[in-house]
Write a structure and sequence with these properties.
alpha+beta, 25% helix, 5 helices
Length: 273
């Protein structure tokens, strides 16, 4: 199935790996993602048309399926940022590679196949959660590394506590998988184009005592904030308003019309989210 998706992707999507022009805006204009085709045919359509529509839906689903992933989970992170921390890298069946939900690059089908094959070998025989060798120091507040690869029946993930801090405490195959994905992420960031869509995730963290809190921007949606930390996904006009009105990067504190102070952070949503 993976080989079929890669062959289909090779026929289209050229240009995703172009290097951004010098002086390009750090916050590119979001582009609308295509609506998925209807899953059922109208009553006046013949059965053959309905089958063709189902085939298109299946192909689209396969192309947008993650086949490799590298992300960090847990660890010490400022409140509100945890919910918008993106995967370090996600590679999709159609060859699209997205690093930090900020840069994208299109990979050729042969490279994606080779990557998946290598990761399957690296992660073969590893448990869902890997324990370090006896005597390996525990690094508190350090994030775990999560490595994922497509098995043909979905994404298999391996959770490795504090791998970045204590690589000597683990099987070399795990660090090999991490390094393989890390090098690709660096390449996507350096040579890819900015990633931007009209779908974002916004995090709101209630804070207080910030003298530098700015007035709430006109047109910015107010996310839920009844508890300490809240997130909501937005699309369309509201997503574009968030991108336009909120600086990218670390969270920023704003004051609502009722006097509440909210620390906001956002990121673009990925194709499978």
């Amino acid at each position: 199935m993976l080989a079929l998706a890669l062959a289909l992707a090779a026929c289209g999507g050229a240009g995703a790996g172009e290097t951004p022009r010098p002086g390009a805006s750090p916050a590119p204009s979001p582009v609308a993602e295509p609506e998925p085709p209807a899953t059922t045919a109208p009553a006046d359509k013949p059965a053959s048309d309905a089958a063709a529509t189902d085939a298109v839906v299946t192909e689209a689903a396969v192309a947008g399926r993650p086949v490799a992933e590298w992300r960090r989970q847990g660890g010490y992170l400022a409140p509100g940022l945890r919910a918008v921390r993106p995967p370090a890298l996600v590679v999709y069946a159609d060859g699209r590679a997205i690093a930090e939900a900020a840069h994208e690059l299109r990979l050729p089908p042969a490279e994606v196949e080779a990557l998946v094959k290598a990761l399957r070998e690296d992660l073969a025989g590893q448990p869902a959660t890997v324990s370090p060798r006896p005597g390996t120091p525990t690094v508190y507040d350090a994030p775990a590394t999560v490595l994922g690869v497509d098995t043909g029946n979905g994404l298999r993930e391996v959770y490795v506590p504090h791998l970045d801090q204590t690589p000597e405490g683990y099987d070399a195959a795990l660090t090999s998988a991490r390094d393989r994905l890390s090098l690709l992420a660096d390449r996507v960031t350096a040579g890819g184009r900015p990633y931007a869509v009209a779908r974002v995730r916004l995090s709101a963290d209630r804070v207080s005592g910030h003298d530098t809190a700015r007035p709430w921007p006109r047109g910015l949606p107010v996310p839920p904030h009844e508890s300490g930390e809240n997130t909501r996904d937005y699309a369309g006009a509201k997503a574009r308003a968030i991108v336009r009105l909120l600086p990218a990067g670390p969270r920023h504190v704003f004051r609502t019309s009722s006097g509440e102070e909210l620390a906001l952070a956002w990121r673009y949503l990925l194709p499978h989210e």
